[in-house]
Each structure stands twice: as C-alpha cells, then as structure tokens.
Amino acid sequence: MAKDQLTRIFRVASGFGRLSFDPENGSIEVDGLGALDIGVSVNGSRLGHVRTEMPIRSPLMGRIVQHLAGDGVAARLCWDAHTTGNLHLYVSLTAETPVRVERVELPSVALSGGAGAAVDRADASGVLLGGSSVIGVAVKKYPWLSSWNDVGAYGHRTLADSVLAAHADGGALAVVSAFPVEMTAGQTLESAVFLRRGEADSEEFRAGLRHEVRYDHRDEVRYIPEGEFAEQRVWEIEDRWLGPPITEGAMQRPYDQLITRPLGLNVLARRRFTWSNEDFSLWRLTGKEHYRDSGIKKAFALVDTQNEHGGWYEGVEFYNLPPQHHHMYDTYISGMFLLDAHDATGYEGFREAAERAVHFWVSKPPPANGHVEVAEGAWWYRWGGYINELGYTDERCVLNTHSGATAFLAMYAERTGDPDARRGAEAGLAAMRWGLERGIQRGDGQFLYCLSQVDPTLERPGDPPYIKLDLVPQIEDVYTVASSYRLMMALRSIPDPVVTAAIRRALDYWWVGHRAGTVYTYRAYSAIAFGVAAGEIDLRYAMALPEILRDREQFTSMQRGLSSFISPYGLPMVYVRARGRPARFVEPVFVRRRPGEYLFALVNTEQPMRQIPVEVALPSSVSLRGASVIDPAAATPEAVPVSWLPDGDGSAIVAVEELQEFAVTVVRLELDEPGA
C-alpha cells in the first residue's frame, strides 16, 4: 500500500482487489473490474474533487481520504481497504452555510460498464452487475445528522427514512434520504457503506453478503443485544467512536452529549464489553470479516491518538477535570486492545504502541507520572492526571485502574520479556499487598474502590464528586469482581499467594451477595471472573456460572476464551461449541489453557439435555489425545474419560452424556501440541 512516485498514483492492495487512486482528478480503478465511480451529491449536484491523501499505509490496512466540495457544502470520502474482502466507505458531509438538502446521496456507487442494479430491502443491501463481476453494496450506517462543539456531538438524529435505492437507469446504487433536511453551518451528515466483490451474481455470493450484513448469526444473537448491534451502526464514524451519553446530570454539558473517543475506547458507557474490545473474538466466533476490519481500524485509531507520553487523554472533561486529562482507564484498556490486535495480526506497529504505553506507566514523572510509589518497590497506578502550568497534578488512586495496569504490564512482559514491564507488574502486585495491609479489602471480602477510602490523607484535589456522593451506586461491588479478574491475568505469569487469597475472599463475598440480590457488576465481568477463577484458583467457582448466565446481559464473546483479554499468550486458541439443539441452551465458558490441556465449563442455561455433542475445532499442529469430564462440586475432583470421534480436518466431537437444567460440568481436553 504505497504511492507511485512517478505517476503520483496511490495504489492499495487489498482483499477487494488492487485499487489505484489518481489524486489529481479523484478517479478510482480496480484491477480486473475497471473504474469504480463513488460520488456524493446534494440536490442533484455532484460534489467536485479537491484533493486526495493517504493517512494510513500498512500491510493490514490502507486508508485513502478524498476531499470534495460543492455549493455551500464540503465532504470527506474515506476508503478503508483491508486484507479481507470488505471495502469500507465513510462519508461526512459538512454544511459551510445554512442549506436545505432536498435530496442527498451518501454515497452513490456505480461500476463502469454496469449491467444493472438490484436492492434487497430486508438487508439494506444490493448488487451491481458488471459483466462477469458483481459488487455487493451494504449500508453500515444510515445518514446521521449532528451538531458539534469542543467536546463532541450533540443534537444528533438518524434519518430513519433513508434507503438504499437504485438509480432510475439501473446503473448505480445510492444511500438517499426521502425527506428534506435543514442544515445549519457546521452541522454534518454522515453515512457509511461497505462493498464486497464477486465473480458472478450467484446465490452463494448473495448469501455471503447477507452473512456480513444481517443480525442473524447464533453467536451474535447470544452475545450482542440487537439494540447494541444497531447502535454500532449509528455511532461509528471515519476514525472515531461516539460513545453514548455519559455526562447526564453535568450542568455544563448538553443532556444529549455524545463523547468523541478513539475507536476502541467505548468504556464507562455500556453494561457489557460490546464493541469496546470484542472485535477479534466476535470475528472468530461468527466468521464475519467486518469484525476483524473493525478491530484493526480501532487499533490504528489508538496508534493515531496516543499522546506524547504514551497514554491517552480523556475524551470529555468530567466535572472539574481539565482538557488533556489522562484517563488511565482508557490507557490500560488501549494497551490491552493493542496486544489483542498484535496477537491477531502480528503487526509490529501495534506492539510498539503498547510498548510506549508501558513506559507511560513505569516512567518517573515527568513526563508520564502513571504511578505513585507507595512503598519501596511498590507502585500504585493512578486513575488519571493532567499537566498544568505548575507541573503534573496528581489524581486519585483507584483499584480497578491499578489492577488493569498491572495486568497490562504483566501481559506485555509475558509476550516480550521486557524487564521494565515485568518490574512494573511486580511493583503493582507489591502495591496491592501494601493496600491489603491498610484495608483496601474489608473483612467481608469486598474491595474498596479508592485508596482515599482507606486513608483520607490520600484524597487528591482532582477527586470528583461521585467518590463522596456515591453517584455510581455499588461501585465497590462492581470493581470487586472486575479487579479480581484483572489481577488474575497478572498472576498467571507472576504468582502471588497473598493476592490470590484476597481474590478468593472477594469472589466469595460477591457470590454470597449475588445470591442475596445485594450486589451487582456489569460488562459481563462476573462470568469471565468466575470462569477464570475456576481454572486458576479453585474448580468450584465454576458452579456459580449457571446462576450468573441466567442473566443474558452477562453473556460476552470474551468468555469463550477467543481473545487475548482472556486467553494465555503463546498457546493456540481452541474453539468449542455444542452442536444441534443443545447449542441453544448449552454455553461453553473458558476455564484454563495450559500446554497440552484445555479446560472449559459446559453450562446448561435451561432444559435438561442428554447426549450433548460438543464440537472441538483445533488449530493446525494441534490434535486431540483424550477427553474427560470433571464434576466441579466433588470434594476431590476426578476426571472421568468420555468418548470422542474425529470430525474432519482439525475437528472432533466430544460426547457429554448428560447435563441437567442450570447445571455445569467441566470438560478437560488433552492435546498433542508442540512444546507440550
């Protein structure tokens, strides 16, 4: 993906085909397909080409941005070309003066020598015929009208009457609005489509297009609420994610304020992990390429928005927090997401960005000041901070950010052997022991949220009102579970019996409260935490999973162990699922992965089942040697062998004899693999 120095042509090699962009006139050619005509029109007048730039050039993704202009309006047309077969097009139309838009095409897509076009209303998709070739066009974001201020978007609405329509001559498809839109200066209309290419207009091609577009896959329905699937199609823009309103009650911000964040940082806004960091696990579960594309796009957005200190700034000021405020929650989530992206792609640019984040946490102030040394060799990782004219201003020390940063540092050290990251993870666990000695964990096992709750002298000038006014109810219970999960990720490579014992007390506390209905958590932390605790601490924690998974909001694709947020580094991932009718009710939850071994809990969320076939898909160079089931309730757990049969290349079927309603068993797979 590079620029031809002689002809000045931008050339992008992608799964869609080799693309050639002429920056002088804006024309686009596709090898083997001919000219691809993508246009933006307002009131019947097509916007003219101004210039073309190429902000991303990499083996994974190329981004071409074309700037367009018309009478009182301007537009950006962004092409994201990936190694997959999808070609994503984002359009942002900005009113430079007040304008009444009677009809808009955002965008129109035509193929030179096209032989016709057809639209599938059910899918908001269509096809363009071009001789022996066909292009599928799918709407991924309906036109969305918004105003903007210095923080983000507001006054936003989706033009629900918009449709994908064929031109009267049948040679083009366009996203159009059926009713006029009044735009004031500075307002934007944004839309997006993606294209797929085929060699013939076959049912197989249309089925592949529908698979990418529709909300109909069993794993999607289970792990992503339909509303959140729709929200993703509304809030994604070219290189940012617009988080849901999270400043309700802040008098200085509009009620409907949306927060501009780097893609991948949709945190503090949803009960579930959702689109924040599930992209690669959803790609592995569903086979939909657009999830992989989204994950790569997010990783590049994180690289682009990483600041000079190696961290990321908060996208909005919370109450009394100033601009350019480091939000450390964003910073450790970003680092972990970059590791996930690097594991999935091998792209060194993602690892290098994660390395810069390591030094944000471990460097002495200035510039980063990500930690405070609470004792010799013990570092507490801060929630936030910013630089003012007097230097670096300290921020509060909370457990969830500290545990997340410690986990990120341990994960980075596990992958690279980096001594600074290893030292930082060890210092984080030492600070956890220091905090335990001073009361960060109550006698009943509950973790406190903030060090200032242990010692008022640790209160910081930047502590916001919600610490004192309990504006986030039960935040201690939320992060009792979340912090336990994150710390377990660090303990995999740096064992610490004191911290492990504290996690045991924390999960026991939370489970008793959960049964009594007095505690809760969000973002599906409980299913992940109790599954991992079953593998890392005590198999009996798996017995909590049927009760937890009665609540469908607790489902997340991450609990399947197909993400670097869960799966140990350096061991090939294993895909398991129930087949046939049991697949509707039986959920596998990741428990443990070690050389030569894979453990997962098989959880029945509804009806009694017998003869449950469990499909095991193994990566290359790995084969199944044996399978057994373990009763997690047994005083002395014993592995009982079960039958299994090969099922084609790299796949096997393991037979689980019986599983009562709301019951759980643990399945152990013995694997032949290199190094085991």
Strand content: 25-35%
Mean pLDDT: 86
Q: Sheet bearing the most strands, described?
A: 11 strands, antiparallel
Coarse shape: globular
Structure explained in plain terms:
The chain is of the alpha+beta class and 676 residues long. The strands form seven sheets. Strands 7, 8, 9, 10, 13, 14, 15, 16, 20, 21 and 22 form an eleven-stranded antiparallel sheet that branches. Strands 1, 2, 3, 4, 5, 6, 12, 17 and 18 form a nine-stranded antiparallel sheet that branches. A five-stranded antiparallel sheet has the order 29-30-36-32-33. Helix 7 packs across helix 8 (399-416) and helix 11 runs antiparallel to helix 12 (497-516).
Topology diagram in text:
Elements: E1 2-3, E2 10-14, E3 17-21, E4 28-30, E5 34-42, E6 45-46, E7 48-57, E8 61-69, E9 73-82, E10 86-95, E11 99-101, E12 104-111, E13 116-120, E14 125-130, E15 133-148, E16 152-158, E17 163-166, E18 172-176, E19 181-183, E20 188-198, H1 203-213, H2 218-223, H3 226-235, E21 240-243, E22 258-262, H4 279-286, H5 289-305, E23 325-327, H6 328-345, H7 348-362, E24 371-375, E25 378-381, E26 384-388, E27 391-393, H8 399-416, H9 419-437, H10 465-469, H11 475-491, H12 497-516, H13 525-536, H14 545-548, E28 575-578, E29 586-594, E30 597-604, E31 609-617, E32 623-630, E33 639-641, E34 644-646, E35 651-659, E36 664-672
Antiparallel strand pairs: 1-2, 2-3, 3-4, 4-5, 5-6, 5-12, 7-8, 8-9, 9-10, 10-20, 11-19, 12-18, 13-14, 14-15, 15-16, 15-20, 16-22, 17-18, 21-22, 23-26, 24-25, 26-27, 28-31, 29-30, 30-36, 31-35, 32-33, 32-36, 34-35
